[in-house]
Amino acid sequence: MKRWFFLLGIMVLLAGCAFSGKQLSEAKVKEIQPNVTTKEQVLSAFGEPGWKGSDSGFETWRYSYRNLVGEGWVNRDLYLIFNPNGTVQKYSYTTNQN
C-alpha cells in the first residue's frame, strides 16, 4: 500500500514537470553582444547547444527549451550565427512567455 502511494505521488509530480532542453536565462541572453561575445563565452553561459549547423557558410548554434506549465507550454529558442573569428555575428531569441 505504501508503494502505491509513493508511485502515485511520483506520477503527480511528473505530470506537472514535463520539459525538454536546458533552461535559458534571459539575463544571460541580454549579455550577448554581436561582434564581441565569443563562442567560449556562449558555451560558458549556456553549455553545449542542442544543435549545430551552418547558414551561408557561417557556423550556427541553437538552444531550445520547452516546459509544460499548467495547461500550456513555455517555449524559448536562442539561435546564434558566428563570424569566422568566433564571435557572435547576430542572434535571435524568441519566447512565448512574458
Structure write-up:
The chain is α+β, with helices and mostly antiparallel strands and 98 residues long. It is built from 3 helices and 5 strands, in the order αβααββββ. Strands 1, 2, 3, 4 and 5 form a 5-stranded antiparallel beta sheet that branches.
Write a concise synopsis of the structure shown.
This protein is α+β, with helices and mostly antiparallel strands and 98 residues long. 28% of the residues lie in helices and 40% in strands.
User: What is the terminal-to-terminal distance?
Assistant: 43 Å
Share of helical residues? 25-40%
Sheet of most strands:
5 strands, antiparallel
Mean pLDDT: 83
What are the secondary-structure elements, in order, as H or E? Answer: HEHHEEEE
What would the keywords be for this entry?
98 residues, 5-stranded antiparallel beta sheet, 3 helices, 5 strands
